[in-house]
User: Which sequence fits this backbone?
């Protein structure tokens, strides 16, 4: 009997050694844990044709590749108030799909009913944020870093990460979803931020009437075309130096400027981050996509309408020490557009809005 | 007949005698005094003579000759060349630390500062003394606020040896200046409006100057294709070709200098009170920039 089982044992070992029983390996405690071998399903971003033609490839951090499970988890988290201190506010509360992922308030209100001092920002085309400097003042380097901030911000979600992670860890679904996305059910704030960033990178907007016009797949009206000429004309709109052009379809330079809003700078913007007084009052040029859904405008949401914005550039510019030289007509208050030029410029700006983006079923609340 | 027979016998005799006299065995070896391994004591050539093969004997070189046994100093090596773009105002170095802070006085007496300086250099090539050229493919958008953009190390390497010239294009030449063709330049909003001929900016220099009443006024000295009239455009790039004798012996750095003050003085005196903004569609301003640009660049230090 003893002799026999030994024989069987040797036979089994031999079979194992020659690899006839590969399934045994996962039961062997000495061999890598299944979770470490686990690879979530890669899901590269779908690059829209106009970006593929004119822009560098999307910028995805090497340590956070896009995966099906990661994006699904990020989407669930983005819409889930579980991350906030009292379970009432999600990222999506201030970043609503219907508003191109911003909100319609001048200042967003946090869970304690306190309003901030900055206008919420729309979220799209983050993988093409070329210098990866997020927020109006560029203080967060990349979406993974940015996503850590709102949760603990006292006038936003006002939570602690220990508490947020504990809520996720004790939730019925999240540990399993983290395991699917990252191969571990031990939740951390870094993994939470990675999942959010993956979802945010899928928010790509490149299907406006003007995009179709550039791709020769659609037309725009004569008024919109005239507005585009004003936008591109150095002596009229001169918007293109900071806000893109038909070959630069991000519609932002992603650089910081003072566009002549205030004589006395109260919010230093980039100057707070860099400590350089020459940066006081500089804010990131916002993209001009989806303006139809993102009012009010500017870092402090001071302009309720696009007409207000255009009037600002036309006759409302005020001088301060750090004003951008491209605000060159400041001594006259602005470029002094006529009423019809203003209307045309506005029509053009609105042709950059993309309803298919805000209605994309993949971007709605999954919960 | 008899005589010949006699001589033959004699010859045999001598031959036979000598070997008998030395009472030595025959020595094999190379018996050719012209060879590298001539063996003076060899008595019989065994086919081992080796002859000098001149060439480059360093396997690390680009013209290594495995058959060569004598290095003749002809080895050629491929070396990295780095172009270092520096800026100065009449010799005084200008970096982004000077932006908004340092006040310069141009030839017209305008007091000005600089808050932005970006420019495009393309088609850099090196002329070799042997008549060949090394043509680098890369273009470079130099932006003083981005230190990484001040250096360009092209993928192609240059071979060691004597050189006689350095050339490059400020901006893009007509063939290269294609609208929308360069994704990195598109993302940088570097495009030149199509109504002005399209393609890309060559330079954006901006800042503020004091007008005649001492009040700060903005200037935007932007250069690119010149628009003559509706739909008619004139090329405006500048091809530089410097005679420059130098020898590349190692990885080399070549400094390309821009003297910013030259944009304002040579040959045309540029007064910012007359021309400060809205210059892109101003044909004469664009062509005057082109003329003044001719003396802006020079070759600085070549180090290795």
Assistant:
């Amino acid at each position: 009997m003893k002799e026999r089982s030994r024989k069987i044992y040797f036979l089994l070992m031999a079979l194992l050694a020659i690899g006839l029983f590969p399934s045994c390996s996962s039961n062997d405690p000495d061999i890598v844990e299944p979770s470490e071998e686990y690879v979530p399903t890669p899901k590269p971003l779908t690059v829209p044709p106009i970006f593929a033609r004119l822009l560098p490839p999307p910028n995805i951090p090497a340590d956070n590749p896009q995966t099906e499970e990661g994006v699904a988890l990020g989407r669930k988290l983005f819409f889930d108030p579980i991350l906030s201190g009292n379970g009432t506010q999600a990222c999506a509360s201030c970043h609503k799909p219907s508003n191109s992922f911003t909100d319609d308030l001048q200042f967003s209100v946090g869970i304690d009913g306190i309003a901030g001092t900055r206008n919420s920002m729309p979220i799209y085309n983050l993988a093409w944020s070329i210098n990866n400097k997020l927020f109006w003042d560029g203080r967060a380097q990349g979406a993974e870093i940015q996503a850590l901030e709102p949760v603990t911000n006292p006038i936003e979600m006002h939570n602690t990460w220990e508490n947020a992670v504990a809520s996720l860890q004790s939730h019925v679904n999240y540990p399993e979803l983290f395991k699917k996305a990252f191969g571990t059910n031990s939740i951390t704030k870094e993994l939470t931020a990675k999942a959010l960033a993956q979802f945010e990178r899928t928010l790509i907007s490149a299907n406006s009437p003007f995009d179709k016009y550039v791709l020769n797949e659609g037309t725009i009206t004569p008024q919109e075309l005239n507005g585009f000429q004003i936008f591109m004309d150095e002596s009229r709109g001169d918007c293109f130096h900071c806000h893109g052009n038909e070959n630069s379809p991000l519609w932002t330079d992603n650089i910081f400027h003072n566009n002549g809003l205030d004589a006395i700078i109260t919010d230093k913007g980039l100057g707070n981050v860099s400590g350089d007084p020459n940066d006081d009052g500089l804010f990131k040029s916002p993209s001009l996509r989806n303006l139809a859904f993102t009012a009010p405008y500017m870092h402090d949401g001071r302009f309720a309408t696009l007409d207000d914005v255009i009037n600002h550039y036309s006759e409302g510019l005020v001088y301060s020490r750090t004003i951008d030289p491209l605000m060159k007509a400041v001594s006259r208050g602005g470029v002094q557009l006529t009423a019809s030029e203003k209307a045309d410029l506005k029509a053009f700006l609105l042709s950059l809005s993309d309803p298919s983006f805000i209605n994309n079923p993949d971007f709605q609340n999954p919960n | 007949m008899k005589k010949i027979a006699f001589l033959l016998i004699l010859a045999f005799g001598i031959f036979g005698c000598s070997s008998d006299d030395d009472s030595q065995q025959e020595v094999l070896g190379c018996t050719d005094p012209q060879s590298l391994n001539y063996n003076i004591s060899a008595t019989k050539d065994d086919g081992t003579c080796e002859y000098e093969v001149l060439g480059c004997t360093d396997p690390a070189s680009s013209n290594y000759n495995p058959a060569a046994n004598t290095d003749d100093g002809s080895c050629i090596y491929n070396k990295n060349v780095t172009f270092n773009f520096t800026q100065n105002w009449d010799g005084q170095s200008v970096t982004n630390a000077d932006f908004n802070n340092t006040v310069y006085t141009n030839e017209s007496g305008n007091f000005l500062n600089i808050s932005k300086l970006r420019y495009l250099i393309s088609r850099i090539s090196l002329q070799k003394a042997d008549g060949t050229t090394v043509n680098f493919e890369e273009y470079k958008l130099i932006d003083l606020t981005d230190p990484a953009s001040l250096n360009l190390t092209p993928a192609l390497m240059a071979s060691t040896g004597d050189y006689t010239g350095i050339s490059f294009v400020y901006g893009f030449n007509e063939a290269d200046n294609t609208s929308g063709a360069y994704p990195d330049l598109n993302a940088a909003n570097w495009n030149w409006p199509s109504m002005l001929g399209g393609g890309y900016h060559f330079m954006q220099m901006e800042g503020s100057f004091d007008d005649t009443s001492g009040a700060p006024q903005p200037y935007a000295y932007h250069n690119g294709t010149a628009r003559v009239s509706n739909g008619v455009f004139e090329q405006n790039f500048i091809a530089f070709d410097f005679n420059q004798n130098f020898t590349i012996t190692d990885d080399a750095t070549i400094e390309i200098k821009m003297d910013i003050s030259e944009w304002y003085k040579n040959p045309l005196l540029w007064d910012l009170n007359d021309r400060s903004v809205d210059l892109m569609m101003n044909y004469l301003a664009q062509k005057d920039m082109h003329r003044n640009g001719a003396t802006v660049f020079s070759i600085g230090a070549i180090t290795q």
Notes: DSSP finds 17 helices and four strands in chain A. The interface with chain B takes residues 53-56, 128, 130, 229, 232-235, 240-242, 244-250, 253, 278, 319, 322-331 of chain A (CB under 8 Å). Strands of chain A lie at 133-134, 140-141, 256-257, 283-284.
